[in-house]
Specification:
This protein folds into two domains: about 100 residues, hypothetical protein tt1805 (3-Layer(aba) Sandwich); about 40 residues, no CATH class. The strands form two sheets. Strands 1, 2, 3, 6, 7 and 8 form a six-stranded mixed sheet that branches. Strands 4-5 form a two-stranded antiparallel sheet. It is about 40% helix and about 25% strand. About 20% of the residues are buried. The protein starts with a helix and ends with a helix.
Amino acid sequence: MIQDHDFHYAIENTRVVVPPHGIIETFGTTSFRFLLVSELMDEVNSVRVRGGNIEAERPRIMSPHTFSKLALEGFGESAREFADWIEDNADTFKILKYGFSFRKTDIQQTVVHDPLEDVLGRLENEIKNSGDPKSTLISGVDDAWEVCLLKFTMDMIQRSAGENVGEWKRRGLI
């Protein structure tokens, strides 16, 4: 079981070596191919390389009313009052919803017996030579590798949100 300090360690030690060239598409599903590289803790110069796909669903604009229904389950009265205030000030708030599908069936993994930086260098060259704009290379922590992958998805959301909102504005949707 992963402990609280493991989450922090994984987040702090997640590094995107090669980011995808694009962002999350505003009006369609975006698929990212990832390679996540992590050192094995019990073997010297042993690195696990995991590969797979992450699918980002098209972002959606949520109304304040819908937001309050989704986000307040289990919260108390003050949260309900805040949600009511958001609904009353609906013109002020635009809330985005991003969804990711992480398909473990796509995961492949191998163990390579080389230093981490050597493996990262080779994979970085492979990705750059492939010309695939939706490929990414991530260096992370082996035991909490899924946390590293989720950190990457959160960073992609932050990177994409401004452009997505701008596209909706250009098309008169918000």
